[in-house]
Design a protein that fits this description.
The protein is of the alpha/beta class and about 350 residues long. Helix content is about 25%, strand content about 25%. The chain contains 10 helices and 17 strands. α6 links the parallel β9 and β10. α9 packs parallel to α10.
Length: about 350
């Protein structure tokens, strides 16, 4: 991701430094040109954002200068015991979603357990400067069921966390992992044995679960890799008549109409509702809560679930405001560790 967390992906100093090419992106992607991946359709361009803007944002984030970033709703995090009980209930459900925190969710589809953007430790980043969580993950890494599939939306540090993935590789050596185009070289550092890249509108199956990579409006900053050397995805999952859209991290654009046209409607949308202020800086990379609800509606979702909020101090707006605005827009906002049984 680029916006608030995108400072995480680069760190203030690294953002200013030139990045070396350490990953080779495929040349046959329809949104790859000039040595990097690109957004498509109409969207807000980040071209007005200067290098010093990135530095300033990263400094404020790592120094804890977003005054309202820790203004969390009451009862925001469930107890470990309650979170475990929710996952146990999900075992027998046809479709269930547990919000672990940030963009990390645990999805139960039929007999399959799916984990999205696993960030399961107490901080993210690279080197000695790391961004600490505001709240712990629920359930913890060691309370997870046997994971069948891991989905990665993109390679920013708060979505692709190498230490978390290494622990998952040790715990679940047979897990199947799906990543955006160009991400495999980085994934070689995880120890995960079964990694497959999917570019936009490519699809596959894992058992009875269909998996389709779809576009997002975003980008990837992860030195020492070149800017946008790796792509960024949303994902659509299907199983037994149920369809779930995981947006990952995205700004708003016309591409969602194209996704709906080409891929069809979904039942449930997991959409990001945090890291959107100030708009002049965040809009190219992150929807605000009202836009998140629009994305879910365009995708045809009957249930819109807000994720990517209230976990890391990434931006100026208060988590209470993130939650309030998405609720006002008609969305559902679980607590960290809460399991929503969507199809018993």
């Amino acid at each position: 991701m680029h916006g608030a967390r995108h400072g995480i992906a680069m760190l203030a100093a690294a953002a200013a430094a030139g990045c070396v090419a350490t990953a080779e992106a495929p040349v046959d992607s329809f949104h790859y040109a000039g040595g990097r991946f690109h957004n498509v359709g109409s969207f807000t361009s980040p071209d007005h954002i200067e290098r010093e803007d990135w530095r300033r944002h990263a400094r404020r984030m790592f120094l804890g200068l977003f005054a309202e970033a820790d203004d969390l709703p009451a009862g925001h995090v469930l107890t470990p015991e309650t979170a475990r009980e929710g996952v146990e209930r999900a075992t027998d459900a046809e479709l269930a979603v547990t919000w672990i925190g940030h963009a990390t969710t645990l999805i139960r589809m039929g007999e399959t357990w799916i984990l999205t953007d696993p960030v399961l430790l107490d901080s993210v980043g690279s080197g000695p400067v790391r961004l600490k969580r505001l709240v712990p993950p629920r359930p913890s890494l060691y309370d997870l069921p046997d994971i069948d599939i891991i989905l990665i939306s993109h390679a920013d540090h708060d979505h692709l966390d190498l230490p978390s993935l290494r622990r998952l590789a040790h715990r679940y050596p047979a897990v199947e992992t799906f990543v955006p185009a160009g991400t495999s070289p980085l994934m070689e550092k995880t120890g995960l044995r079964h990694v497959r890249e999917l570019d936009w509108f490519e699809s596959t199956r894992d058992g009875d679960v269909s998996i389709e990579a779809v576009p997002a409006i975003h980008g990837v900053r992860r030195p020492p890799y070149k800017l946008n050397a790796m792509s960024w995805n949303g994902w659509i999952l299907g199983q037994g008549g149920n369809r779930v859209y995981f947006a990952g991290d995205t700004g708003f654009g016309s591409i969602f109409e194209e996704i709906r046209r080409r891929s069809g409607p979904v039942d449930v949308a997991l959409v990001p509702i945090g890291a959107w202020s100030p708009r002049w800086f965040q809009e190219p990379f992150h929807v605000d809560p009202d836009q998140a609800a629009r994305v879910a509606a365009i995708m045809g979702a009957k249930t819109a679930i807000g994720i990517h909020w209230g976990t890391f101090p990434l931006s100026e707006e208060a988590p209470r405001e993130q939650r309030r605005r998405f609720l006002d827009a008609g969305g559902a906002v679980p607590r960290i560790g809460e399991t929503l049984i969507l199809r018993p």
